[in-house]
Amino acid sequence: MRKQETTGSRSAPVLGRRAFLAAGMAAAGTALAGCGPADTVLSGKQRLRQWNLFTGGDGARMVEMHEAYRKQHPGIDFQPSTFQWGNPYYTKFAMGAAGGRAFDIATLHVSRIRGLGAGTLLSPVPTDLLAQHGITRDTITPNIWDKCTIDGELFAIPLDTHLMVNYFNRPVCEEAGVLDSDGNLVAVSDEDEFFEVCAAVKEVTGQYGVVTDTTHAWRPFWSLYRQLGGELTLEGELGIDDDKALRALDFLRRLSQDGLAPKSSDGAATPANFQNGIAGLMLSGNWELPTLKDAGMDFGMRPFPGIYGEELGQGDSHCFVLPVRREPDEDAVAAAVEYAAWMLKNSVTWAGGGHVPAYTPVTEGREYADLQPQANYRHAAENVQFDPSAWFSGSAAQLQADAGAIFTGVHTGAVTPQAALNRFKRAAQNLIDTTSPV
Amino acid sequence: MTVHANPTETPDAAPAPRSSSPPAVSGTARRSAAGIWFVLPFTVLFAVFLIWPLIAGLWASFTDRSLAKEDSSFVGLSNWVEMFGDPAVWQSLWVTLLFTLITVPPLVAIALAMALLTHRATARIGWFLRFSYFAPFLMPVAVVTLIWEWMYQPEFGMINDLLATVGIPGVSWLTGEDTVLPAIALTTVWWTVGFNYLLYLAALQGIPAYLYEAAALDGAGAWRRFTSITVPLLRRTTTLIVLLQMVASLKLFDQAYLMTNGSGGPNYAARPIIGYIFESGFTGLRIGYASAISYLFFAVIIVVSVLQLRLFSRKEDAA
C-alpha cells in the first residue's frame, strides 16, 4: 500500500481529508469488530478468555505455561489478561463477573470465593467434566478441595497452595550453629527455643535475628493463633479467644521489642532485609523464593516454626473459577475446564514460584521431589491455615487490611497487644454488622 | 479564549437594530440553530461525564448498590445515617484536613522562595534552577512514591543513614503513627512544589522592573521592596495558588495509598477520606455507601473553597 502511494506521487494528494477520515473510521470499525466474537466465528476457533492476577515471577511462569498450552491447543483462541493483585484485580473481577461478559475462566484466591459471590457471580464447576480430565478429590490435596466446596458444590479448581514459611540464610545460620546435620534450620517446640535461635542468628548478623512484614502482621498472627488452637467466628457476635490472640500478639511484640526483629519492615523491605543479611531468618510467604533465587542467595526454606505446637502456617490457594453466564455456552465451559485441568497437570512449572501444586500426582512425582527448597515445606501445604470465612475476609480483603493497620503498632511499640486486640475486635465486629454487599 | 469570544459577540450585537424587519428574525433563528451544533459536542460530554455521574452518584447513595451485584434497591437514608455515625469517616476526613493544613503553607512559601531565587539568578544558572525545581513535578506518582519509600526505609534508607551520621537514632517513618503523615507531606511538597513555583515565577516576571528601580531611588531597602511591591503585586497569584493547592491537598489519595501499600498506615494515620471512600467502594464493594461519603466530602470541598474565596476577596477589597 505504502509503496504504491509513494511511487505514484501524483495520486498521493487524492487521499484527501475526508477520505483519510473515512478510512480511519473504517479501520477503527474493523478493530472494534475484532474484539467481538465475530473473528472467533470466522476463524472457527473456540475463544477462551482468561483473567489472572500474576505479575513478576509468577506472571513469567504463567506465560511460559500458556505458550506450551497454545502449542498443544491450536483450536483454541486463547486470550489471557493480567491485572495487578489486590484491589485492582478483585474490583475488575467483581464488575466483570457482574456484567457477565468479561471472562470464561479467571484465577482467584480460594479465600475470596465466598466474598466474590459463589453462586451469584461464580458458577459451580461441573465436576463430571473435571473428572473426565482426571481431576477429582482423590487427585487434589483434600483440605484445599474442601475449601473450594460450598454447600456440597465445587466452586473453584485449585491450582496451588501458598503459605507462610520460614526462610533461613544458610551461611549465617551455619555460623550461628542453628542448622541440623542435613543443613536445615533446627525445629523449635516453643517460644523460648525460637527466641534462642533468633538470638544466636542476631549474634552473627549483628543487627537482627529474624524479619517479618510488620505492616501485614495478619499472616504471622493467624499462623500463631491457629497453632494455639484459636478459632475466629465472623457471624453474629464476633467469636475470638482473647487469651490466645493476646499470646500471639505478645509474641510479635517481644520479637520487635527485644530487638530480635525490626520494629518496622514493610512488604518491600522485608525480603531486602533478609537478602542484605540484616536478618538471618525471614517469616514470609513462599512467593519470595524466585526473587531470592534470582539474587543468587544461599538460603533454605522450612515450614513456619511450630512455636505453639504444630508447624501451621497461614496461607491461601490460587484457583480457577467460572463466571455465571447469562446465556449458557457449553463449549466455552468445556474449553475452560480443559484449560484448568491442563494447567493443573503441568503445574510443576508453576512450582518454580514456590507454590505447592494442588494436583497430587505432580507433588508426588519425581520432578517435584527434586525441586529444592520447595520439597522441604511440601507437607506443610497439606495443613495450610486458611483465613476464616466471611465476605470481608481473605486475600487483600478488608479484615486483612484492618489487621495490618492495627497490628503494625504492636511491632513498633505504639500500642500494647491488649489495645491492638480491642481495636481489631471493634473493626471485625463492625464488618460483621455491615450488611453483606454480595 | 477572549480573543475568540469577541468577534462572535459583535455580529450578535450588530443585527439588533435590524430585528424589526421580518427576514432578519429567521436569519437569527438559523444562526442560533447553527450555534447549537457548536455547543452540542461539549454539552453532551458535559452532561454524560459530569452531570449524569453527579446525579447517578447521588442516587446511588440512597441505594445498596454493590460492585458484586447487578441489581440494587432503594434504602432511603440508611447510608447517610450510617455515615454520620461511622467514626472512620470523621477520622479519615480529619487526616485529609490535617494533611491540607500541613502541606499548603510550605507548598506556597517554598514555591515563592524558589521563584524569588530563580528570578534573580543569572541566565547562566537560571535554566538549571528552573529545570531542577520543576523536574520532580513531571514524575508520575508511582515513581515518586517508590523513590521515597526506599529513602524512608528504617533499616537501610538514605534518610536514616544521613540522620545516623549526625548521631540521631533511626525513625520508622512510614510505620510510625505520628510520622507517616508528615513523611507523606514531605514527599508531596518535594513532588508538587514545582507547579506553584512556575506560577509564581511567571507572576514575578510580570512585575515591571521600574517599580523596584523607583523604590530603590526613594531609598527603599530590599526587604521593604519585597513587602511593599512584590507581595502586594503577587496577591492575585497567591490567591490562585492557595485555592488550587487547597483543592489539590484535599484530593490526597494516590501517594498515601501507595506509600502505605494500601493499608492506610499504622492505625489508619494516613488514610485520607478518599482512601476510605475507595476502601468502602472497592475493597468493601459497597458503592452506595461510598457514594454517600463522597457527597459529604464534596460538600466539605465546596465549603472550604467558598470560605477561602470569601476570605481572600475581602482582603483584596480592603487593600
Q: Can you tell me about this structure?
A:
The complex is a heterodimer of chains A (438) and B (319). Chain A has helices at 2-7, 17-35, 38-43, 56-72, 87-99, 127-132, 142-147, 170-176, 191-205, 218-227, 242-257, 269-275, 289-294, 330-345, 360-363, 366-369, 378-381, 398-412, 417-433, and strands at 46-52, 76-82, 105-109, 122-123, 149-150, 153-154, 157-158, 160-169, 208-212, 232-233, 239-240, 279-285, 299-303, 315-316, 318-323, 356-357. Chain A has 438 residues and is α+β, with helices and mostly antiparallel strands. Chain A has two domains: 44-158 and 318-347, Periplasmic binding protein-like II (D-Maltodextrin-Binding Protein, domain 2), CATH 3.40.190; 164-313 and 385-433, D-Maltodextrin-Binding Protein, domain 2, CATH 3.40.190. The longest helix of chain A is centred in the first third of the chain and has 19 residues, at 17-35. The relative contact order of chain A is 0.16. With 319 residues, chain B is an all-alpha fold. Chain B has two domains: 2-60, no CATH class; 80-318, MetI-like (MetI-like fold, Orthogonal Bundle). Chain B has helices spanning 2-13, 22-60, 78-84, 87-120, 123-134, 141-151, 158-165, 180-205, 209-217, 222-233, 235-250, 254-259, 273-283, 287-318. In chain B, helix 3 (78-84) packs across helix 14 (287-318), helix 4 crosses helix 13 (273-283) and helix 11 (235-250) packs antiparallel against helix 14.
Task: Summarize, please.
Chain A has 438 residues and is of the alpha+beta class. Chain A is 44% helix and 16% strand.
Averaging pLDDT over every residue of chain A, what do you get?
88
- As for the number of domains of chain A, it is 2
Assigned CATH architecture of the largest domain in chain B: Orthogonal Bundle
Rg value of chain A: 25 Å
Biased composition (Low complexity) (chain B): 13-26
Region (Disordered) (chain B): 1-26
GO cellular component, one term (chain B): plasma membrane
Organism (chain B): Streptomonospora alba
